[in-house]
Design brief:
Layout (H helix, E strand, L loop, with lengths): L10 E5 L5 H10 L4 E6 L2 H13 L6 E5 L15 E3 L10 H12 L6 H17 L4 H9 L6
Parallel strand pairs: 1-2, 1-4, 2-3
The structure holds S-adenosylmethionine.
Length: 148
């Protein structure tokens, strides 16, 4: 959560959100300006998360969507600031497709052509190969500026 560098007014996508542990923790940290999209393959799990959101009085800043981690086609390119996914990828058969979707969701106009180039040539292949360090993964997941 620290690594995500969340800030006011951001949008967080939590993939495989389950009961919403990550999403609600993020809301606790940032407050009412944070928008959170919770996705999960399980509709009943998301209904449960929604009931918790209502109870915590944060329903208005949450969006719930049933989908698999490797198909986020309901959402536009570059439409979120941060993607989180905790204890989910082990269940995802097509991890490469899931990572491609995460990239699509966070790669934004804010990157210069050089940064996008670095991201595509250096960061993406490293992450998708699975041969990455924790730091590289954190950089990738945050869609922050590339490693120097
Ligand atoms: C161990 S729970 C983790 C829940 C939550 N991320 C957390 O940290 O508390 C795994 C979650 O991944 C979801 N899940 C499993 N396979 C999935 C897939 N292919 N796409 C999206 N979600 C999936 C499950 O429904 C479940 O809610």
């Amino acid at each position: 959560m620290d690594g995500a560098q969340l800030g006011a007014g951001m949008t967080l996508l939590d993939v495989g959100a389950g009961e919403g542990l990550v999403a609600f923790r993020a809301i606790d940290r940032i407050g009412p300006s944070l928008r959170v999209i919770l996705t999960d393959v399980s509709a009943s799990m998301l209904r449960h998360a929604e009931s918790i959101a209502v109870r915590r009085d944060v329903r208005a800043q949450c969006t719930f969507h049933v989908c698999t981690a490797d198909d986020l086609s309901a959402f536009a390119d570059a439409s979120v600031d941060v993607v989180t996914t905790r204890a989910v990828l082990a269940y995802v058969a097509n991890k490469k497709a899931a990572f491609a979707e995460f990239f699509r969701m966070i790669l934004a106009e804010q990157f210069s052509a050089d940064e996008r180039d670095f991201f595509e040539k250096m960061v993406r292949p490293t992450i998708e190969s699975g041969n990455h360090s924790t730091t590289e993964r954190a950089v990738y997941m945050q869609a922050q500026k590339p490693l120097a």
